[in-house]
Amino acid sequence: xxxxxxxxxxxxxxxxxxxxxNSKQHLAYSPPSDILQMKDLGQxxxxxxxxxxxxxxxxxxxxxIIQHRHPGMAPRYASFIHEFWHSPEVLKIISDNAGVDLIPxxxxxxxxxxxxxxxxxxxxxxxxPLEPPAATEEAISEFEKDKPQTRAVTDQTRPIIEWHRDSxxxxxVVMLSDARHMIGGETELKKADxxxxxxxxxxxxxxxxxxxxxxxxxxxxxxNMPERVxxxxxxxxxxxxLLDETTNSxxxxxxxxxxxxxxxxxxxxxxxxQRAQIAAKELREMYEKNVNASDPEGKKGLCRVETVNVKxxxxxxxxxxxxxxxxxxxxxxxxx
Length: 336
Known about the structure:
Layout: H1 23-26, E1 35-37, E2 51-54, E3 57-58, H2 62-68, H3 74-77, H4 79-86, H5 88-98, E4 102-104, E5 112-115, H6 121-126, H7 137-146, E6 161-164, E7 170-175, E8 187-190, E9 196-199, E10 206-210, E11 217-219, E12 229-237, H8 257-294, H9 310-329
Organism: Penicillium cosmopolitanum
Region (Disordered): 1-26, 35-54
Protein name: Fe2OG dioxygenase domain-containing protein
Protein backbone atom coordinates (compact mmCIF):
# COMPACT_ATOMS: atom_id res chain seq x y z
CA UNK A 1 0.00 0.00 0.00
CA UNK A 2 1.35 3.40 -0.94
CA UNK A 3 2.07 5.83 1.89
CA UNK A 4 -0.36 8.55 2.78
CA UNK A 5 0.80 12.13 3.20
CA UNK A 6 3.77 13.14 5.32
CA UNK A 7 3.30 15.45 8.30
CA UNK A 8 5.18 16.38 11.43
CA UNK A 9 3.26 13.61 13.22
CA UNK A 10 5.00 10.76 11.42
CA UNK A 11 3.14 8.09 13.38
CA UNK A 12 -0.27 9.31 12.33
CA UNK A 13 -1.67 7.92 15.58
CA UNK A 14 -2.12 10.87 17.88
CA UNK A 15 -1.75 10.56 21.64
CA UNK A 16 -4.52 8.01 21.99
CA UNK A 17 -3.16 5.57 19.42
CA UNK A 18 -4.55 4.58 16.03
CA UNK A 19 -8.22 5.28 15.41
CA UNK A 20 -10.55 2.28 15.18
CA UNK A 21 -12.96 2.10 12.27
CA ASN A 22 -16.54 2.82 13.24
CA SER A 23 -19.11 2.74 10.44
CA LYS A 24 -21.38 5.31 12.12
CA GLN A 25 -18.49 7.73 12.60
CA HIS A 26 -16.49 7.15 9.44
CA LEU A 27 -19.06 6.56 6.70
CA ALA A 28 -21.19 9.26 5.07
CA TYR A 29 -22.59 7.08 2.31
CA SER A 30 -25.31 8.06 -0.13
CA PRO A 31 -25.96 5.97 -3.27
CA PRO A 32 -24.69 7.32 -6.60
CA SER A 33 -27.20 9.32 -8.63
CA ASP A 34 -26.49 7.15 -11.66
CA ILE A 35 -24.51 4.07 -12.68
CA LEU A 36 -22.98 3.88 -16.15
CA GLN A 37 -23.34 0.47 -17.79
CA MET A 38 -20.89 -1.23 -20.12
CA LYS A 39 -23.52 -1.03 -22.86
CA ASP A 40 -23.40 2.77 -22.53
CA LEU A 41 -19.81 2.50 -23.78
CA GLY A 42 -20.86 0.24 -26.63
CA GLN A 43 -19.35 -2.78 -24.85
CA UNK A 44 -20.86 -6.06 -23.72
CA UNK A 45 -21.10 -6.80 -20.00
CA UNK A 46 -18.03 -8.61 -18.72
CA UNK A 47 -18.25 -12.01 -17.05
CA UNK A 48 -18.10 -10.16 -13.74
CA UNK A 49 -20.60 -7.32 -14.09
CA UNK A 50 -22.53 -5.06 -16.49
CA UNK A 51 -21.39 -1.99 -14.50
CA UNK A 52 -18.85 0.36 -16.09
CA UNK A 53 -18.66 3.26 -13.62
CA UNK A 54 -20.66 5.04 -10.97
CA UNK A 55 -21.28 8.74 -10.72
CA UNK A 56 -19.38 10.21 -7.75
CA UNK A 57 -21.10 9.46 -4.43
CA UNK A 58 -20.43 10.40 -0.78
CA UNK A 59 -18.50 7.73 1.11
CA UNK A 60 -16.03 9.07 3.71
CA UNK A 61 -16.93 11.28 6.66
CA UNK A 62 -14.58 14.14 7.52
CA UNK A 63 -13.04 12.02 10.30
CA UNK A 64 -12.34 9.25 7.78
CA ILE A 65 -10.77 11.74 5.38
CA ILE A 66 -8.36 12.87 8.11
CA GLN A 67 -7.47 9.26 8.96
CA HIS A 68 -6.72 8.51 5.30
CA ARG A 69 -4.43 11.55 5.13
CA HIS A 70 -2.27 10.25 7.98
CA PRO A 71 1.14 8.90 6.96
CA GLY A 72 1.81 5.22 6.98
CA MET A 73 1.84 2.14 4.82
CA ALA A 74 0.65 -1.47 5.21
CA PRO A 75 -1.61 -2.70 8.04
CA ARG A 76 1.29 -2.49 10.48
CA TYR A 77 1.43 1.31 10.15
CA ALA A 78 -2.05 2.18 8.88
CA SER A 79 -4.42 -0.12 10.74
CA PHE A 80 -7.40 2.20 10.29
CA ILE A 81 -7.10 2.15 6.50
CA HIS A 82 -6.79 -1.64 6.54
CA GLU A 83 -9.88 -1.96 8.76
CA PHE A 84 -11.85 0.54 6.67
CA TRP A 85 -11.43 -1.23 3.33
CA HIS A 86 -11.93 -4.72 4.80
CA SER A 87 -15.03 -3.79 6.79
CA PRO A 88 -18.30 -5.55 5.86
CA GLU A 89 -20.03 -2.17 5.61
CA VAL A 90 -17.60 -0.75 3.06
CA LEU A 91 -17.38 -3.99 1.08
CA LYS A 92 -21.18 -4.12 0.83
CA ILE A 93 -21.26 -0.56 -0.55
CA ILE A 94 -18.55 -1.32 -3.09
CA SER A 95 -20.07 -4.67 -4.10
CA ASP A 96 -23.65 -3.41 -4.37
CA ASN A 97 -22.60 -0.61 -6.72
CA ALA A 98 -20.19 -2.78 -8.73
CA GLY A 99 -22.78 -5.48 -9.31
CA VAL A 100 -20.52 -8.27 -8.01
CA ASP A 101 -19.26 -9.31 -4.55
CA LEU A 102 -15.75 -7.86 -4.22
CA ILE A 103 -12.84 -7.92 -1.77
CA PRO A 104 -9.55 -5.95 -1.77
CA UNK A 105 -7.16 -7.37 -4.36
CA UNK A 106 -4.16 -7.37 -2.00
CA UNK A 107 -3.00 -5.30 0.97
CA UNK A 108 -0.49 -3.70 -1.38
CA UNK A 109 -3.37 -2.30 -3.44
CA UNK A 110 -5.28 -0.63 -0.59
CA UNK A 111 -5.28 3.18 -0.69
CA UNK A 112 -2.61 3.67 -3.30
CA UNK A 113 -2.16 7.45 -3.09
CA UNK A 114 -1.95 9.82 -6.05
CA UNK A 115 -0.75 13.38 -5.55
CA UNK A 116 -0.79 15.85 -8.42
CA UNK A 117 2.42 17.84 -8.27
CA UNK A 118 2.13 21.60 -8.31
CA UNK A 119 4.74 24.35 -8.65
CA UNK A 120 6.23 23.41 -5.28
CA UNK A 121 7.08 19.90 -6.47
CA UNK A 122 7.89 17.15 -3.96
CA UNK A 123 8.92 19.60 -1.25
CA UNK A 124 5.37 20.95 -1.18
CA UNK A 125 3.93 17.43 -1.00
CA UNK A 126 6.04 16.67 2.06
CA UNK A 127 4.46 19.67 3.81
CA UNK A 128 0.87 18.67 3.06
CA PRO A 129 -1.22 19.09 6.23
CA LEU A 130 -3.58 16.52 7.69
CA GLU A 131 -6.51 18.92 7.50
CA PRO A 132 -7.40 19.47 3.82
CA PRO A 133 -6.76 23.10 2.89
CA ALA A 134 -9.98 24.95 2.10
CA ALA A 135 -10.04 25.61 -1.64
CA THR A 136 -11.75 28.96 -1.33
CA GLU A 137 -11.90 31.29 -4.31
CA GLU A 138 -9.29 33.43 -2.55
CA ALA A 139 -6.94 30.46 -2.08
CA ILE A 140 -7.30 29.48 -5.72
CA SER A 141 -6.62 33.07 -6.83
CA GLU A 142 -3.48 33.12 -4.70
CA PHE A 143 -2.39 29.79 -6.22
CA GLU A 144 -3.00 31.07 -9.75
CA LYS A 145 -1.06 34.26 -9.00
CA ASP A 146 1.99 32.37 -7.73
CA LYS A 147 1.96 29.62 -10.36
CA PRO A 148 3.57 31.54 -13.25
CA GLN A 149 6.44 32.65 -10.99
CA THR A 150 7.73 29.10 -10.55
CA ARG A 151 8.66 26.26 -12.83
CA ALA A 152 5.60 24.27 -13.85
CA VAL A 153 5.90 20.65 -12.78
CA THR A 154 2.70 19.34 -14.37
CA ASP A 155 1.90 19.86 -18.05
CA GLN A 156 -1.75 20.85 -17.85
CA THR A 157 -2.28 20.03 -21.54
CA ARG A 158 -1.63 16.34 -20.95
CA PRO A 159 -3.48 13.71 -18.87
CA ILE A 160 -2.14 12.80 -15.45
CA ILE A 161 -1.47 9.33 -16.81
CA GLU A 162 -1.64 7.93 -20.32
CA TRP A 163 -4.57 5.91 -21.64
CA HIS A 164 -4.51 2.54 -19.89
CA ARG A 165 -6.42 -0.33 -18.31
CA ASP A 166 -6.01 -1.22 -14.66
CA SER A 167 -4.31 -4.31 -13.29
CA UNK A 168 -7.36 -5.26 -11.22
CA UNK A 169 -11.02 -5.77 -12.13
CA UNK A 170 -12.50 -2.88 -10.13
CA UNK A 171 -11.11 0.23 -8.48
CA UNK A 172 -12.62 2.72 -6.05
CA VAL A 173 -11.18 6.26 -6.34
CA VAL A 174 -11.75 8.66 -3.42
CA MET A 175 -10.98 12.41 -3.32
CA LEU A 176 -9.15 13.60 -0.19
CA SER A 177 -8.89 17.28 -1.21
CA ASP A 178 -11.32 20.17 -1.31
CA ALA A 179 -12.43 20.07 -4.96
CA ARG A 180 -15.51 22.30 -4.92
CA HIS A 181 -14.06 24.81 -7.41
CA MET A 182 -11.85 22.35 -9.30
CA ILE A 183 -11.53 22.76 -13.06
CA GLY A 184 -10.71 19.47 -14.81
CA GLY A 185 -9.85 16.29 -12.96
CA GLU A 186 -12.41 14.14 -14.78
CA THR A 187 -11.93 10.48 -15.66
CA GLU A 188 -12.29 9.96 -19.41
CA LEU A 189 -13.51 6.59 -20.68
CA LYS A 190 -12.96 5.27 -24.19
CA LYS A 191 -16.04 3.87 -25.94
CA ALA A 192 -16.07 0.96 -28.38
CA ASP A 193 -16.37 3.32 -31.37
CA UNK A 194 -13.28 5.31 -30.34
CA UNK A 195 -15.16 8.28 -28.93
CA UNK A 196 -14.85 9.17 -25.24
CA UNK A 197 -17.11 9.88 -22.30
CA UNK A 198 -16.19 11.88 -19.21
CA UNK A 199 -17.13 10.99 -15.63
CA UNK A 200 -16.99 14.05 -13.41
CA UNK A 201 -14.42 14.12 -10.65
CA UNK A 202 -15.57 13.40 -7.09
CA UNK A 203 -15.79 16.05 -4.40
CA UNK A 204 -13.93 15.65 -1.09
CA UNK A 205 -14.89 12.40 0.63
CA UNK A 206 -16.72 11.16 -2.45
CA UNK A 207 -15.88 8.06 -4.48
CA UNK A 208 -16.15 6.66 -8.00
CA UNK A 209 -16.20 2.91 -8.72
CA UNK A 210 -14.81 1.83 -12.12
CA UNK A 211 -14.44 -1.57 -13.81
CA UNK A 212 -11.01 -0.38 -14.85
CA UNK A 213 -9.57 -3.70 -16.01
CA UNK A 214 -11.90 -3.73 -19.01
CA UNK A 215 -12.26 -0.02 -19.82
CA UNK A 216 -9.49 2.05 -21.38
CA UNK A 217 -9.38 5.32 -19.46
CA UNK A 218 -7.29 8.27 -18.36
CA UNK A 219 -7.46 11.14 -15.88
CA UNK A 220 -7.37 14.82 -16.75
CA UNK A 221 -5.26 17.13 -14.58
CA UNK A 222 -6.88 19.75 -12.37
CA UNK A 223 -5.84 23.14 -13.68
CA ASN A 224 -6.54 25.32 -10.66
CA MET A 225 -5.96 23.13 -7.60
CA PRO A 226 -3.35 24.06 -4.98
CA GLU A 227 -3.79 20.46 -3.79
CA ARG A 228 -5.27 17.32 -5.40
CA VAL A 229 -4.91 14.06 -3.50
CA UNK A 230 -6.81 10.87 -4.36
CA UNK A 231 -6.62 7.32 -3.07
CA UNK A 232 -7.28 4.21 -5.14
CA UNK A 233 -8.22 0.80 -3.75
CA UNK A 234 -8.33 -2.20 -6.10
CA UNK A 235 -10.77 -5.09 -5.84
CA UNK A 236 -11.21 -8.63 -7.17
CA UNK A 237 -14.14 -11.08 -6.96
CA UNK A 238 -14.72 -12.81 -3.65
CA UNK A 239 -15.98 -15.90 -5.46
CA UNK A 240 -12.85 -17.89 -6.46
CA UNK A 241 -14.64 -19.50 -9.40
CA LEU A 242 -15.29 -16.21 -11.18
CA LEU A 243 -13.02 -14.86 -13.91
CA ASP A 244 -9.74 -13.56 -12.48
CA GLU A 245 -7.60 -11.75 -15.05
CA THR A 246 -5.69 -9.67 -12.52
CA THR A 247 -2.14 -8.72 -13.51
CA ASN A 248 0.84 -6.91 -12.02
CA SER A 249 1.47 -4.99 -15.24
CA UNK A 250 0.96 -1.49 -13.81
CA UNK A 251 2.56 -2.01 -10.42
CA UNK A 252 5.54 -4.37 -10.47
CA UNK A 253 7.97 -1.77 -11.82
CA UNK A 254 6.96 0.62 -9.00
CA UNK A 255 6.77 -1.75 -6.05
CA UNK A 256 8.86 -3.49 -3.42
CA UNK A 257 8.89 -6.83 -5.18
CA UNK A 258 9.65 -8.85 -2.07
CA UNK A 259 6.33 -7.73 -0.55
CA UNK A 260 4.33 -7.60 -3.78
CA UNK A 261 5.30 -11.09 -4.90
CA UNK A 262 4.58 -12.60 -1.47
CA UNK A 263 1.08 -11.10 -1.43
CA UNK A 264 0.51 -11.96 -5.09
CA UNK A 265 1.58 -15.60 -4.78
CA UNK A 266 -0.32 -16.31 -1.57
CA UNK A 267 -3.52 -14.75 -2.94
CA UNK A 268 -3.28 -16.84 -6.10
CA UNK A 269 -2.57 -20.02 -4.12
CA UNK A 270 -5.51 -19.25 -1.83
CA UNK A 271 -7.78 -18.93 -4.87
CA UNK A 272 -6.45 -22.21 -6.26
CA UNK A 273 -7.02 -23.93 -2.90
CA GLN A 274 -10.60 -22.61 -2.72
CA ARG A 275 -11.28 -23.81 -6.27
CA ALA A 276 -9.94 -27.26 -5.36
CA GLN A 277 -12.10 -27.41 -2.23
CA ILE A 278 -15.19 -26.49 -4.26
CA ALA A 279 -14.41 -29.15 -6.89
CA ALA A 280 -13.84 -31.80 -4.19
CA LYS A 281 -17.11 -30.86 -2.44
CA GLU A 282 -19.03 -31.21 -5.71
CA LEU A 283 -17.53 -34.69 -6.28
CA ARG A 284 -18.40 -35.82 -2.76
CA GLU A 285 -21.97 -34.63 -3.20
CA MET A 286 -22.23 -36.41 -6.57
CA TYR A 287 -20.78 -39.59 -5.07
CA GLU A 288 -23.32 -39.49 -2.24
CA LYS A 289 -26.13 -39.09 -4.75
CA ASN A 290 -24.83 -41.98 -6.87
CA VAL A 291 -24.46 -44.27 -3.85
CA ASN A 292 -28.03 -43.59 -2.75
CA ALA A 293 -29.30 -44.21 -6.29
CA SER A 294 -27.37 -47.47 -6.86
CA ASP A 295 -27.44 -49.15 -3.45
CA PRO A 296 -30.76 -49.75 -1.65
CA GLU A 297 -28.97 -49.44 1.69
CA GLY A 298 -26.96 -46.38 0.61
CA LYS A 299 -23.66 -47.95 1.63
CA LYS A 300 -20.39 -46.51 0.36
CA GLY A 301 -17.46 -48.55 -0.87
CA LEU A 302 -18.76 -50.11 -4.05
CA CYS A 303 -20.57 -47.40 -5.98
CA ARG A 304 -21.55 -48.82 -9.38
CA VAL A 305 -22.29 -45.42 -10.96
CA GLU A 306 -19.45 -43.38 -12.47
CA THR A 307 -18.87 -40.25 -10.38
CA VAL A 308 -15.75 -38.76 -11.96
CA ASN A 309 -15.99 -37.36 -15.46
CA VAL A 310 -12.34 -37.64 -16.46
CA LYS A 311 -12.71 -35.23 -19.37
CA UNK A 312 -14.27 -32.64 -17.08
CA UNK A 313 -11.44 -33.07 -14.56
CA UNK A 314 -8.91 -32.73 -17.35
CA UNK A 315 -10.53 -29.45 -18.46
CA UNK A 316 -10.56 -28.19 -14.84
CA UNK A 317 -6.89 -29.04 -14.41
CA UNK A 318 -5.98 -27.22 -17.63
CA UNK A 319 -7.68 -24.05 -16.37
CA UNK A 320 -5.84 -24.22 -13.04
CA UNK A 321 -2.50 -24.89 -14.73
CA UNK A 322 -3.02 -21.82 -16.92
CA UNK A 323 -3.94 -19.81 -13.83
CA UNK A 324 -0.68 -20.74 -12.12
CA UNK A 325 1.35 -20.18 -15.29
CA UNK A 326 -0.11 -16.67 -15.40
CA UNK A 327 0.83 -16.30 -11.73
CA UNK A 328 4.46 -17.03 -12.64
CA UNK A 329 4.34 -14.83 -15.75
CA UNK A 330 3.36 -11.84 -13.62
CA UNK A 331 6.61 -12.29 -11.65
CA UNK A 332 8.92 -12.37 -14.67
CA UNK A 333 12.08 -10.23 -14.55
CA UNK A 334 11.51 -6.52 -15.04
CA UNK A 335 11.89 -5.43 -18.64
CA UNK A 336 10.45 -8.65 -20.05
